[in-house]
Amino acid sequence: MTELKCSVTSCAYHEEHRCCLNNIKVEGTTADVSDSTACASFVDRKKMGYRNAFIQEPRQALVIECMAEKCAYNRGLNCTADHVHVAGNQAKEFDETKCDTFVL
Length: 104
Known about the structure:
Layout: E1 2-6, E2 14-15, E3 18-19, E4 23-27, E5 38-39, H1 45-48, E6 61-66, E7 74-75, E8 78-79, E9 83-87, E10 98-99
Parallel strand pairs: 1-9, 4-6
Antiparallel strand pairs: 1-6, 2-3, 4-5, 7-8, 9-10
């Protein structure tokens, strides 16, 4: 599993710079740069409410399904990076987030 640091404080799953999901999905099939990626698991905290019963505790490590085919860490649509940073502090939509760890 990959250690995830998340700075998307507007996401309903964000807590203590971590994610409260078991896994996330990063979009960006044709991405050449990190700005062309996005966390497809993002849900606006204001739309969902602060916490729902199905949300888990923050996780230090989780599975990342990665659609960014050109990323050096993508192996069979799974992220193999040891550490991943998802950014997009003021995001209101998933496409306003990005995987800062993306590299060609």
